[in-house]
Design a protein that fits this description.
It is a single chain. By secondary structure, the chain is an alpha/beta fold. The protein has two domains: about 1-215, Metallo-dependent phosphatases (Purple Acid Phosphatase, chain A, domain 2, 4-Layer Sandwich), CATH 3.60.21; about 220-335, no CATH class. About 30% of the residues lie in helices and about 25% in strands. It has eight helices and 17 strands. The chain has helices at about 25-45, 65-75, 95, 235-245, 270-280, 295-300, 305-315, 320-335; strands at about 1-5, 50-55, 80-85, 105, 115, 120-125, 140-145, 160-165, 170-175, 180, 200-205, 210-215, 220-225, 255-260, 265, 285-290, 290. The strands form four sheets. Strands 4-3-2-1-11-12 form a six-stranded mixed beta sheet, covered by helices on one side. A six-stranded mixed beta sheet has the order 5-6-7-8-10-9, with no helix packed on it. It has a three-stranded parallel beta sheet with strand order 13-14-16, with helices on one face. Helix 7 (about 305-315) runs antiparallel to helix 8 (about 320-335). The N and C termini lie far apart (about 60 Å).
């Protein structure tokens, strides 16, 4: 039997990180389309059940158009059972917004579990591991949205604990019998959700489970971290960013988070870089985690250390200010054992 495990889709999300670019609405529709494509994949590949483990929607405010599309997708695929539990974001708003609950939407409001007799598979939702009373003879799938302590779910006859809440793939063992898995989200919504996103395809045969992560997102959010201590200006940093994004072969339709670390000159034009790479990629976010050479100099010159003594010696020279800063930059890197270019 084939199933899909997904969660944290967050339909109708605000996407404030894209509000300045005017692309938030486009991304909302892309997230919805990815959900629809997943269901289309399920229909074409003989998937019998889709486990939606919370936060299908981003909040209790759900647009009528989105409700209509999601409802029609469920009704239009009567051969697929949609198992759904609410998450901490949408709570019960989805079920309240539906004109009627489709027969193939299994919500656990009236039943604690559903069983596929021919395969010996039972699907159960739980709010706490203590409430479980599962038959050891069945292949038991349990749905839960939230943070877990794996030890609390062991020895419960669980074969697969389908989890939601965290937005990246995370899995592990539940003793010798079972395993737990956070499927992650279908699409990264912000620059804190980098990497491949998708769903988990489950194949269960003769009591054996084969889970496979399936990348599904239309766009990937990439994180690029650069130590710019050796950069002397905006031009050098521009070349460094360009070389690294080329090396990583980041597609222009994707989103990029660029994290700058190390020491930086005071004249870096971050706004220029945001503009340039915002045009080269779908969206870009630059995080400046650097320490200003000038500020570091002011702080370190009072240190009772070899570094502080070196900075004080340089600052006493009658050299131009830019030369002092360059000597301090190179000298402190040498003291820290870093390669100097």
């Amino acid at each position: 039997m084939k199933m899909i495990h997904c969660s944290d889709i967050h339909l109708d999300a605000v996407l404030s990180c894209l509000s300045d670019t005017g692309k938030a609405e486009e991304r909302r529709n892309e997230i919805l389309l990815t959900f629809v494509r997943m269901i289309r994949y399920a229909a074409k590949n003989g998937v019998k059940a889709i486990l939606i483990v919370g936060d299908l929607f981003d909040s209790i405010r759900i647009s009528p158009a989105t409700i209509d599309i999601v409802g029609k997708c469920i009704i239009g695929n009567p051969d697929i059972d949609f198992f759904y539990i609410s998450g901490n974001h949408e709570r019960d708003a989805f079920l309240s917004a539906l004109p009627a609950v489709p027969e193939n939407l299994k919500t656990f409001t009236d039943k604690k579990s559903y069983r596929y007799d021919e395969e010996g598979i039972t699907v159960t939702a739980a709010s706490d591991p203590s409430e479980l009373n599962l038959s050891p003879a069945d292949f038991n799938i349990v749905l839960y949205h939230g943070t877990i302590r794996p030890n609390a779910w062991m020895n419960k006859n669980i074969d697969y604990l389908a989890l939601g809440h965290f937005h990246e793939l995370k899995e592990g063992a539940l003793g010798q019998r079972g395993r737990y898995c956070y499927s992650g989200c279908l699409e990264g919504r912000g620059f804190d959700e980098c990497g491949e996103k998708g769903f988990v395809r489950l194949s269960i045969k003769n009591g054996l489970l084969e889970p496979v992560f399936m990348q599904a997102s239309k766009r990937t959010i990439h994180e690029v971290t650069l130590d710019i201590s050796e950069v002397k200006g905006t031009g050098d940093l521009d070349i460094l960013i360009s070389d690294e994004t080329d090396r990583l072969r980041i597609p222009p339709d994707d989103l990029v988070k660029i994290v700058l670390t190390g020491r930086t000159p005071d004249d870096i034009n971050i706004n220029y870089l945001k503009k340039k790479y915002g045009e080269e990629f779908y969206a870009v976010h630059i995080v400046d985690d650097t320490v200003s050479v000038r500020n570091e100099t002011e702080n370190a010159r009072y240190d009772v250390s070899l570094k502080g003594e070196f900075i004080r010696m340089v600052m006493e020279k009658s050299w131009p200010e830019n030369e002092k800063q360059e000597v301090i930059r190179i000298g402190t890197m040498a003291l820290e054992g870093k390669v100097i270019s």
